[in-house]
Amino acid sequence: MKTRKLGPHNVSAVSVGAMRLSIEGRPSRQDAIATIHAALDAGANHIDTAYGYRIPGEPEAHNHRLIAEALATWPGGDSTKVVVATKGGHLRAAEDRPGRWSQNGNPAHLKLVAEWSLRDLGVDAIDLYYYHRPDLNVPYADSVLALKELHQAGTIKTAGVSNVNVEQLRIAHEILGDALVAVENHFSPAYRASDEVLRLAGELGLAFIPYHSAGGLAQPGGAERFPAFHKIAAARGISVQRLALAWELALGDHVIVIPGTSRPASILDSIQAADDVLTAEEMAALGADVWG
Ligand SMILES: NC(=O)c1ccc[n+]([C@@H]2O[C@H](COP(=O)([O-])OP(=O)(O)OC[C@H]3O[C@@H](n4cnc5c(N)ncnc54)[C@H](OP(=O)(O)O)[C@@H]3O)[C@@H](O)[C@H]2O)c1
After folding, report:
1. With contact defined as beta carbons under 8 Å apart, do 54 and 63 qualify?
2. Which residue's alpha carbon is at the smallest distance from atom 40 of ligand 1?
3. What is the value of pTM for the model shown?
4. Domain annotation for the chain: domains and CATH numbers
5. Which mean pLDDT values do the consecutive 10-residue runs of the chain (292 residues) have?
6. Ligand 1 atom at minimal distance to the Cα of residue 261
7. Residue 96, C-beta contacts closer than 8 angstroms, at least 6 positions apart
8. In angstroms, what is the span from residue 20 Cα to ligand 1's centroid?
9. Where does ligand 1 bind, in terms of residues with CB under 6 Å?
10. How close is the Cα of 21 to the center of ligand 1, in Å?
């Protein structure tokens, strides 16, 4: 598979978003592990996870432990070369608020989550650790400083930020310098509040990781709202989700996509986007759907 730079790592342009393997609607553990193995077999070498990916009432580390087990049991190659990116500071809320998430950007908490992540992932250092979502009760710089200290201590190899605006990204870059390698934000044809962040990430030499890449396209009304996406996907004989991933990859060499999956078929479909080359005419038509 084509690779792209994620700081010091060369990772698959289409990587694996693992959240749906641990939250509501998730597959069985066996099927979840089979899904990760199918992605690795197809060339994915970067998995996106977070401390908080679990169903409320269960240990926070559900996704970490699942990934550790999948990597340990993968018969296909050297799983120590797989880059696992995780996040701290965003939690499944209390049992009485099902489905809700909460923030904790307290520096001590971010450091504790990093330690727990080492334990649950079974690694000596975290490949990439994101501050998951800004906690408005804690000055942003204070939370980011915790990541700097984790990097200086060797607990994390590289740092990332997520769900940030331009100002927060600039603060993180100023504090973390070269330790900052990635920014992960909600971005899709239907959701583009991060257009400027995508551009700035490229300018700063950071990877941009969009999540919910195909949001809105496959839902009711998607074909009417995004006619070019549906027309071009049909003409190419590919899924509209795969086309959205190919379009995002074409927006810049610094983009790495992490489609969600709960079954081998969808991640194997998504992975093919790494080889889709869109023509200038197709990009213009898709751009008109999005920005037109
Ligand atoms: N930083 C953050 O705050 C944040 C927030 C949300 C998510 N994320 C990360 O982003 C990743 C992706 O987000 P997401 O899990 O919400 O998933 P998503 O990429 O929005 O995809 C949602 C669902 O669409 C289906 N799908 C995706 N590609 C498909 C394809 N090629 N063909 C058919 N169906 C397809 C999958 O269904 P099936 O389940 O049927 O396979 C998937 O579960 C997460 O796993 C997580 O790692 C980060």
Report:
1. yes
2. 262
3. 0.97
4. 3-221+249-276 (3.20.20.100)
5. 97 98 96 98 98 86 97 94 96 69 93 97 98 96 98 98 98 98 97 96 98 92 95 98 98 98 98 98 96 87
6. 41
7. none
8. 7
9. 17-20, 48, 132-133, 162-163, 184, 211-213, 215, 239, 241-242, 258-263, 266, 269-270
10. 10
- Three-state DSSP state, 130: strand
Three-state secondary structure call for residue 11: strand
DSSP of 23-92: STT---HHHHHHHHHHHHHTT--EEE--TT-S-TTS-TTHHHHHHHHHHHH--SS-GGGSEEEEEESEEE
List, in sequence order, every residue forming a beta bridge with 86; answer none if it has no partner: 129
Q: What 3-state class would DSSP assign to 3?
A: strand
Strands 46-48, 16-17: pairing is: parallel
Neighbour tally for 109: CB within 10 Å: 18
Q: Please name the residue that has the structure tokens 């080492």.
A: 118
Q: Cα of 260 to ligand 1 centre, how many Å?
A: 2
Q: Which amino acid is at 108?
A: A
CA distances from 125 to 83, 121, 183, 244 (A): 11, 10, 20, 33
Residue with tokens 């330690």: 115
- Measuring from atom 31 of ligand 1, which residue has the nearest CA? 270
Q: What is the DSSP letter of 276?
A: -
As a residue count, the chain comes to 292
